[in-house]
Amino acid sequence: MSDQSADIIDLLAGITPSSELAAVRAQRTQARENAQLSFTALLEPEQPGDFSLAERYAIAAFVAQLHGFPEAAEFYADLLGDEDSQLAAQIAAAAADVVAAGAGRGPVGAYREPDLASEGTHAAVWRPDADAAERLGAHLAAGLAHAHALVFRPREARPEWLAALVAAGWSADAIVSLSQLVSFLAFQLRLAWGLRVLGGSADAFKPASAAAPASDAAGEVPDPALDSAIDPAPANLPDLVTAYPELARPDRFTQQGLGWVPWLAPVAEAELTATQLDALIQPERAKMPYFRLLARDPAALKARTLTDLDIFFNVTDGIGRAERELAATAASRHNGCVFCASVHSAAATRESGRAETVQRLLDAGVGADLGDPVWNAVVASSVALTDTPLRFGQEDIVRLREVGLGDAEIVDVISGAAFFNWANRLMLSLGEPEVPARRARA
């Protein structure tokens, strides 16, 4: 078990209580406290159910190693080693196998949306080999394969991914917790790494494999022949998993509002418990399938929601709302989350009044010149932070400082981009977007 008195992000970032960065983090108290509560809810819950503590630590150790963050990899390996030293060695071997297989760079993969097919990149599929799977057990082996896919190729998520978990014995509640755990780690590791870079202590450990963006990697070039279309009616899905043969799907990134449908059954609105209703924070979210699905793990949902609200709406002594939404949009564009990009690009437009500039980011991609040094710096830094292994470095801090941002504003950019590496993976791996019926008929 971890030291309950230690703030994990501060620990991983090398932040001391008396430092300037500690004071900056204290300006976002809800985000800081609830990121810690997310760790507790997902790594050390009082009732882990059929997703054991050892398996949770194993997934975390694996994901940390995939990100190329030595301090985090050591931290989670130690937690796992205290629980099961033999399993810790197996997880280290699995992470090494990912690198050896050339399956360790992201975000990559084909898009679901047909108009984005030309942007698709080849993505290596990894899963434990037969011998490793036998040692790990089918349940954990499937969890590791799912974690790898979520880390590196979230935009390729399909209902079949969840079917594979169900076949290995994962329940709907456990699948939600697994998705939350991997997605939370994508946030936690990026936030801690970004803070570590800002504090000046990360460059010496920057992995050589992170020197180039994912889209520039050898063998990972756009391929117009990639089939990006989601199978509307995949065969042999278990009862727990739902596909939508007649769904009106978006073709591209858009600022227009989209719906979202879940591949797993949400908690029925009438069956939400008092704990689940409390976890929603905002009562109107009881009408939304996404939040009712996440309510299967209410402690994780509540902590995540409060983290989200503080990062994006607490503007005291920080960067503006428009730039936070821009960071979210850039991360979503790079990961390939059309739903998240629609919500937060529209918010960036609403906060800035710059609809054409925001649309340029959606249409031309994260390399587009937005005609504004601050916006270009926010996008470039958000993209660097979104790549895996972690690529964000001192050059990104310099770029942000050169356009006039101070530490508190830079932390807001880092936090916004990091958080959407959490949000994107949940939205992409648990369901898919739909065009509202009124527009689909037009």
What does this structure look like?
The protein has a two-stranded antiparallel ribbon with strand order 1-2. It has two domains: 8-216; 259-440, AhpD-like. The longest helix has 27 residues, at 172-198. The protein has helices at 8-13, 20-25, 29-43, 53-66, 70-83, 85-100, 130-136, 138-152, 159-167, 172-198, 274-280, 289-294, 298-313, 321-335, 338-352, 355-364, 373-386, 394-402, 407-430, 437-440; strands spanning 259-262, 431-434. It is built from 20 helices and two strands. The protein is an all-alpha fold and 442 residues long. Helix 4 (53-66) packs antiparallel against helix 5 (70-83), helix 14 (321-335) runs antiparallel to helix 15 (338-352) and helix 14 (321-335) packs across helix 19 (407-430). One of its GO terms (molecular function) is peroxiredoxin activity. Residues 298-377 form the Carboxymuconolactone decarboxylase-like domain.
Short description, anyone?
This protein is mainly alpha-helical. The protein has 2 domains: 8-216; 259-440, Up-down Bundle (AhpD-like).
Main sheet strand line-up: 1-2
Overall pLDDT: 93
First-to-last CA distance: 56 Å
Major sheet: size, sense and barrel closure? 2 strands, antiparallel
Order of helices and strands: HHHHHHHHHHEHHHHHHHHHEH
Low-confidence stretches: 203-212, 216-228
Shape by Cα distribution: globular
Q: What count of structural domains?
A: 2
Q: How many strand segments?
A: 2
Structural class: mainly alpha
User: Quaternary status of these chains?
Assistant: single chain
Helix content: 55-70%
Indicate the radius of gyration in whole angstroms: 20 Å
Number of helices: 20
Which percent range describes the beta-strand content? under 5%
Keywords: Oxidoreductase, Peroxidase
Protein name: CMD domain protein/alkylhydroperoxidase domain protein
InterPro entries: AhpD-like, AhpD_Avi7169, AhpD_core, CHP04029_CMD-like, CMD-like, Uncharacterised_peroxidase-rel
GO molecular function: peroxiredoxin activity
